[in-house]
Amino acid sequence: MECSRHCALSDVSYLVDHHASIDLCLHPIHLTAHNAAATRRAGPGAVRELIGARELLWSFVERDLIVRYRTPIMGIAWALATPLLQMAMFTVVFTRVARVDVGMPYPLYAYIGLAAWTLTAAALREATSSLSSNAVLVTKVSFPRAVLPIAAVCTALMDFAVAMLLAAVLLWYYDVGIGWAALLLPLVLLVQLAFTAALALLLAAANLFWRDVRHLFDLFIGVWMFATAVVYPVQLAGGRLGEILTLNPMTHIIEAYRDVLVRDRALSAGFGMVALVSLAVLAGAWTVFRRSERRFAELA
């Protein structure tokens, strides 16, 4: 059994690396047995299976990075373009047209928010179609399907790492000293990744059951951005609306980045609550994904 699973994962890695098509005659996989066992392995065993497929996960990430960074300069430019151009646009709007006091240089405020937001938005956009766009693999090869949406999150993380290089330049330009709170940056990132991975698993599965999810997501993501403290403090909304907007987990995550990088202060109680919620949602999303997995082959 272990040998069969190892061979299957090796086959998938080879196909991902070489962009080859799958021939059932060459790669016979017992999908029924795999899918029936998916629900039984929805606990720690499933996690171990995913960890065992880390080489396969890296194969998917490497494939996407090679395509994106085939020309390194252009790859880096694209990773910086979205948050940088949006920062420039919102800087004009919120410093020239409608002045907003954010307690720090506005370009720095906006860029940190946009870089963090782009990590989640880009990861979810790719994860939503990760199963449907790899239908041949999903239907004909037995492997942990969670690898596909998780790979989308990992790829977006690489772009985020590039984008944060410019954030470091902005911190230097505005003479913002890095304090002890910056040591909490990895914790903020881990919470964001947990929250993003949870949504990625749910959206990827939902898009197989209802193909309109992809289009609805494109509409929702724009609204969600302006309901988050990405380019302006949501407290400015005031009243009941402001209170509702502060319940948005992404608001607390993005403000946490500003707290540890610019304000040099400890993480808020709101962020602590978001951390707990993110872990709970991730556990729930993982269970839902694994229990739905037995139908992926017929829906892809």
Question: How would you explain this protein's 3D organization?
Answer:
With 300 residues, the protein is mainly α. It has one domain. The protein is 74% helix and 0% strand. The protein is built from 14 helices and no strands. It is globular and about 55 Å long. The two termini are 25 Å apart.
Give the integer mean of the pLDDT values.
82
What is the count of β-strands?
0
- What is Rg? 21 Å
- Tally of contiguous helical segments: 14
How far apart, in Å, are the first and last alpha carbons? 25 Å
Structural class: mainly alpha
Q: Can you give the helix content as a percent range?
A: over 70%
Basic shape: globular
Oligomer: single chain
- The helix/strand series, from N terminus to C terminus, equals HHHHHHHHHHHHHH
Q: Strand-residue fraction? A: under 5%
Which regions are unreliable across 5 or more consecutive residues at pLDDT < 50?
1-6, 17-42
Structural domains: how many: 1
Main beta sheet: none
Q: Which key features would you list for this structure?
A:
single chain; 300 residues; mainly alpha; 74% helix; globular; disordered N terminus
